[in-house]
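Suppose you are handed only these lines of text.
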Amino acid sequence: MSGVTITFVEPDGTEKIIEDAVVGESLMNVAKDNGVEGIWGDCGGGCACGTCHVYVDEKWQDVVGKPDDIEEMTLDMVTEAQQDNSRLCCQIQVSPELDGVRLTVVPAE
Ligand code: FES
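From them, the structure of the protein bound to FE2/S2 (inorganic) cluster can be written out as follows.
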């Protein structure tokens, strides 16, 4: 099976299109493996640091879903840039449904 395509918009507006994301991998790891600017993943995916903050494109919000309570709490603590479409991308797993998803990287504060 071919990979899932994920687009990250880096802080300077560059679109990084990754076409071979592996199902089950976290989007934070996909971003780091592909050198996406602004995704640091300092806590290793533990939902504790907020350095994997992204905004989910509006039309993808229903597919990606909302943060759970723990993720919401971390977002509250680590960023003032939180919006309705904020997610910590270490908490999102690649799935076939996400093929084509577009995420904007929010630089850590
Ligand atoms: S990598 Fe730390 S919160 Fe996602």
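What can we learn from it? The chain has three helices and five strands. The radius of gyration is 12 Å.
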